[in-house]
Amino acid sequence: MYLGQRWATKLAAKVVQGLPEKYMYPHPDMCTIKHEDHAQCLKLIQKAMEDDAQKKQVTKLYETVGVYLGYALAQYCEFYKIDHVMILGRMSKGAGGDIMLNTAKKVLQTEFPEYAGIQFHSADDHFKAVGQCIAAAALPTINK
After folding, report:
1. Which residues, 6+ apart, have CB-to-CB distance to 47 below 8 Å?
2. Confidence (pTM)
3. Which of 66, 14, 6 is nearest to 42 (CA)?
């Protein structure tokens, strides 16, 4: 499952004060395959999370993404037996990432108690930032 930073960057304009227009979805720069603008926007979201004046609003963004994650996991559980989930990627860094994961757990406990036993695993913040690289390196080889 991939829930990347684009989930957050689409919501950024609703919670981050002073966000440059080029980082506001659907600005053309945010509607391309390019990764750089989304990465910079996510850094601004994370910076806003550290600002006491913005923290309450930005927390709502992380809670929203956590709800998405919780419901997505429950849907996947309809097809796969999931006992462990490895959480990687820049979106999961810092206090916001903790809020996202705790919200996802709460969704599972409240809405899908049969899946509440899923264990979440994550790396340190350095490895979270390069999560996709770790995931790609861990992919098994498929022999044809």
Report:
1. none
2. 0.84
3. 6
